[in-house]
Amino acid sequence: MASADKPINTDVPEKDVFALHFLQSLSNLRRQNAFNSPDDTTNNRVKKIKKAAYVSMARAAGGTNRLWSRALLRRAAKENNKVVIFSRRKKRVTWLRRSNRRDPVDAERLRNLLPGGGAMETSKLMEETAHYIKCLSMQVKVMQCLVDGLSAK
Amino acid sequence: MDVSEKDELRNGDTTANYDDESANNNNPPPDWRVSGSNQVSAPNDSYPPENQMMDSFGQTLWYDPTNVQAVGYGGFNGVNNASSSSSSFRGNNNMDRSLEMGWNLLPPKGNGMFLPNASSFLPPPSMAQFPADSGFIERAARFSLFSGGSFSDMMNHHHQQQQQQQPLGNPTESIGLFLPSNVGVAHNDASAAMKESNVVRSSEQGNKQNVPGSGNVSEDTQSSGGGGGNGQKGGEASSKGFDSKKRKRNRQSSEAGQSHRSQQSEEEADNNGDKKRNDEQSPKSQGNKTNSGKQTSDPKDGYIHVRARRGQATNSHSLAERVRREKISERMKFLQDLVPGCNKVTGKAVMLDEIINYVQSLQRQVEFLSMKLATVNPQMDFNLEGLLAKDALQLRAGTSSATPFPQNMPMVYPPLPHGFMQQTLSSMGRNISSPLSPINGGYKRQEANGWEGDLQNVIQINYGAGDVPPDSQAAAAAATAASLPSSNMKVEP
């Protein structure tokens, strides 16, 4: 799960961290009784679960240390009309943004996929993508285990 | 001996020349001429005019080394066919050939006067003792470097100012190549030659570098570079000094096939030492690709200096661009390892597509699993299951405390008995009722302590509900909250 490239560090926490965060968010969902009152279609529930999954993944995987997790959390908070407070990581973020204009067309599709990818330089985008892929696969594993545990009777 | 002579020349003249950055190309030639007079008498006369003629830079350069290396020249004769390929002092094409043959071809086409001189050079008596190609070439290359040093400095000046085609470009090249080929080369090549000389120096350690002349000369330059690196005896020190000078000046970069050179040069000098004229903000990636021909190891500041490679534009933008591109490609390689089944794929576009597909598939998987979760447990009361699942996930070894968990959840992974976890998770239908009951209490206790909020309630309810209802399937089938225990327990036989 954790691998480190020489200059690039894409370490990802173990599965249990992801699982913990995910379950926490799910329990939060449950606490909010999100599913009970609306009694809406499965879609809403699915959406909520999905959002909880992403948010928990962002929290588990990097918190505010990763650009994509920050963007994800910010986006989620905006949906909930919450305000997310990020400790200012580095000034370099804006610096990257400035020098990004040079070649934004290159990996456009990837930018659209990755949360917060539009404001990154291409090399940074690659790095974030690598970390994102790792976290996504971890989250998928956790959810799969959960589903298996729940459904396998 | 000729060799000693050469050394003298080298030490004496070159250092002087190199140190002064002034373009006193005239100085070395006279000195050399003097010292080498015993060997090259006739050519000497031609030298001064040659030397002063900046136009015939290449020629003068060419001659200087020859003077010094009269013996080597002879050696060349023996080694190489004295074909007239060298005629293209000015021409790039024959550079390599001239290198090899080199000395025989002394007179560049453009300069007829050299011819007679060249001929006079031919018969150094002691050629026999000279080693074959490689050694001689090395020495020759060394010399050329030396002589070229001053020239190159001068050339660098020119280059710097003009940045582009220069009439004087040729000489620098020849310097590096140590042969007429340098002369004929265009400006860029000249700078490349400078690089070559740098490279040659760097290849003192024996690296066979691809001295970048023009494209044609690549092979020859390699040999000469290698030879020069190895063969130089006394001049090494001075050449080194010269080298640094040249390095400072020479910003030329060679693109074509200079990868090995840059790699080798990288080995020698660390990136940081290079002084980059261009911009400080283009960090040099650690990979070999970024480094330009020769890296000096004189760190001046904290920046990572990137050196333009031979044949490449030295524009600051292009340098930064190159560094950026290399960074991106490096990260692409990293991604390639990450995405399964991308080992055979090469090319940025295809790789990008693969990555995008993979990310999309992962996102789809997340969505699908969340859908499954929603249907599997509509009440979302699956905390306990999650707990168990979590236990199963990470507590294979049964050591929950080892997990790096947030402090607020120390109890999350209670040290359940291994068997308990396995059973609950692996085989839901297993009946663990009896062992479970005592555990339940403990579990619940722990859980109650550990969990916060409704989780505790849920769990307590679950356990409070009692025993494991046999219908765990009911739980899966969207059991109600009351049936939570059943779904959670799953231990019912």
From TrEMBL, chain A:
Any GO BP: regulation of DNA-templated transcription
Main location, first listed in the record: nucleus
InterPro entries in UniProt: bHLH_AtIBH1-like, IBH1-like, IBH1_N
Residues of the signal peptide: none
Keywords attached to this entry: Nucleus, Transcription, Transcription regulation
PANTHER family: TRANSCRIPTION FACTOR IBH1 (PTHR33124:SF109), TRANSCRIPTION FACTOR IBH1-LIKE 1 (PTHR33124)
Protein name in the entry: Transcription factor IBH1
Organism this protein belongs to: Raphanus sativus
Automatic annotation (TrEMBL), chain B:
Identification of the protein by name: Transcription factor bHLH49 isoform X3
Coiled-coil ranges from the UniProt annotation: none
Pfam families assigned: HLH
Biased composition regions of type Basic and acidic residues, renumbered to the chain: 1-11, 272-282
Source organism: Raphanus sativus
Domain BHLH: from-to ranges: 312-362
Transmembrane segments: none
Presence of keyword GTP-binding: no
Alphabetical list of InterPro entries matching this protein: bHLH_dom, bHLH_ZIP_TF, HLH_DNA-bd_sf
Positions with biased composition (Gly residues): 224-234
Lineage of source species: Eukaryota, Viridiplantae, Streptophyta, Embryophyta, Tracheophyta
